[in-house]
Amino acid sequence: MELRRLGVHESVGAVFPPERLRDALAEADPDLAVPVVGDDELDDCDAIVTFAYSESFLDADLRWIHSIQAGYDRFPLDALEERGVALTNSTGIHDTSVGEFAVGLMLSFARRLHTYVRNQQAREWSHPAWDDPFTLDGERLCVVGLGTLGRGIAERADALGMEVVGVRRSGEPTPHTETVYAPEDLREAVADARFVALAVPLTDETEGLVGAPEFDAMREDAYLVNVARGPVVAEDELVAALREDEIAGAGLDVFEEEPLPEESPLWDFEEVLVTPHRAAAERDYYRHIAELVRENVERATEGEELTNRVV
Ligand code: NAD
């Protein structure tokens, strides 16, 4: 694949300044033009690095699209394949960032940090009930999906002394998990867990994966952590489970609709932590993306198969 002009789509500005990525890419390959482009400036681009998907990508003569996210559920895979446009994603870089974030959510619930922040805002010196705080050490975590994110979470939870089990399509063991269940045994896998962390991509198979029957199977003192994609959880059923105290709470970075609508009941639960889809955010994000893209620019130029290829 000949690459002379690689656009950085302005939508990456939702995650980091586009110029940072442009400079990092242009520095590495002076023969490659790397402009920051909007939808109406795609004409001369051979490829694009983007956050959002835009219909204009299909009209432009792009050979390759790189998504700065791991999830690619917003891209029209069939249409891209039909037109011979390669799509690559950014899986493989979020183990540390999302791993730390998911563990941070669990630590907050266990050590009651979210309640102290709330009290501080009200200038209130207030203690939790004596038996509310607990330690993560010895608690059971079930990680659903053991790819980059799932393994990053499992490794960090294991380091904190948690008993980590997981759900994996192959059912084969992975490092830092004591037991691995097959997806059909999901309810059995979550039954004894104090925390259930979701780390699967959004696919036809995983949409609504966690709903009323899973909340029913979970412990009443269990917390759900969703750092995957909103629609992996049936949100109405989550709200019902929280209202009926079927589970203790949830740490949610992703939602069926984002931004989470102001009228969503999820904002109001004391034991729900809402974060704005920022589990992977970190100041070096653009550097990790630059490394992935640079590697694929080299591969494309050498005529080799692209890494992280989705289509
Ligand atoms: P990955 O491809 O490395 O891992 C996904 C894993 O899930 C794979 O091992 C796959 O086999 C497994 N899987 C798929 N369907 C399954 C099922 N039904 N049951 C059990 N396992 C199943 O991807 P990743 O980098 O770990 O990212 C996973 C997803 O997390 C992404 O697709 C994205 O939607 C989301 N994500 C969110 C954030 C965030 O900021 N909150 C950041 C990165 C990724």
From TrEMBL:
Protein name: D-2-hydroxyacid dehydrogenase
Record-stated family: Belongs to the D-isomer specific 2-hydroxyacid dehydrogenase family.
GO molecular function: NAD binding; oxidoreductase activity, acting on the CH-OH group of donors, NAD or NADP as acceptor
SUPFAM superfamilies from the UniProt entry: Formate/glycerate dehydrogenase catalytic domain-like (SSF52283), NAD(P)-binding Rossmann-fold domains (SSF51735)
Key words, A-Z: NAD, Oxidoreductase
Classification via Pfam families: 2-Hacid_dh (PF00389), 2-Hacid_dh_C (PF02826)
Domain D-isomer specific 2-hydroxyacid dehydrogenase NAD-binding intervals: 103-279
